[in-house]
Amino acid sequence: MDAPVIDRSKLDAFVMRAVGDLSAGYGGVMVSLGAKLGLYKAMAGAGPLSTNELAARTGCAARYVREWLNAQAAGGYVEYHALSDTYELTPEQALVLADEDSPLYIPHAWNTPASMWFDEHKALEAFRSGKGVAWGDHDGRLFCGVSAFYRNAYRASLVTEWLPALDGVLDKLRSGITVADVGCGHGHSTVQMAEAFPHSRFHGFDVHAESIETARDNAEEAGVAARTRFATARADDYPGTNYGLICFFDCLHDMGDPVAAARHAAEVLAPDGTIMLVEPFANDRVEDNISPVARLYYAASTTICCAHAISEGGTLVLGAQAGEKRLTDVFRKAGFTHFRRAAETPFNLILEVRR
Ligand SMILES: C[S@@+](CC[C@H](N)C(=O)[O-])C[C@H]1O[C@@H](n2cnc3c(N)ncnc32)[C@H](O)[C@@H]1O
Fold this sequence. Notes:
By secondary structure, the chain is an alpha/beta fold. 49% of the residues lie in helices and 15% in strands. It has 14 helices and nine strands. The strands form two sheets. It has a seven-stranded mixed β-sheet, with helices on both faces. Helix 11 (209-222) links the parallel strand 4 and strand 5 (228-232). S-adenosylmethionine (SAM) binds next to helix 8 and helix 10.
């Protein structure tokens, strides 16, 4: 067979792309160090700082700080002022790297690929055996990475945009209904809703017992323990009836039998109740999911979401890029007839489902 013809410019472009990705992977370790050592926070709003000034502000060794700063400058994560030999975090960079309450804050998200690398041997084994890997069998950085990442996205949109986008739900929450937050993880969504709607009651359920304990602690810390309850339970058998709102935040696609979860929701939803389905943003076709966000989700889906669904029997393994059509099919099979895309962000699709 003839050797393939190599297009030099395509090769160069692709090598640069692959090297850029490799560089970003190294940069992620630097982002994590910068966040944990308080380097970004010390730079936020401080104007140009020398290496020694930043080292003194953070109690870190100057030689390490200098090399870290140069890595940041090389990647465009801080500005370097050559004349004064100082480094500066711009307000835009601070929103992404220093402000933990910003919806754009990124550092915690690097915990997820860290856990994926740590568990690579489990993924290799799963590919070869076809068996699953349960959510709780992953390195602990996964739970922190995912929950901290989504917490800020929820804080930016859940109470102010997503719930108001659902037909009539805001009024019901204000006057008082019982809400189920299925697959609640660390319970940030549950807590945020409980903070906003003091007359309603919020029940969080998850199969991962450790996450449920953390969710209780989070509710306690936020001062909403009295109107929240958390229990370890599966999406197809949690207790309670007559829920006015049932939420699935970024978890339906993780379940081994999402149709069973939808059927259970149909049984315990109030007659005029609403389901809010929050899922990773995706279009219906692979060719329409060619983007950095889709790449991130498909990758996490490979070793985390599909692996968990398979560990639960994998009747229907949706993956994290299921798209609206396959998601609504799940609820159609459970007898629901009303579906609407209530809102969307670059990271999430928010679907309203009713009888
Ligand atoms: C990606 S995490 C999302 C957690 C949380 N909702 C959030 O948005 O931060 C998916 C969660 O679904 C839970 N989960 C997976 N399968 C489940 C099932 N069958 N029943 C209940 N929870 C499940 C996992 O334990 C995990 O906490």
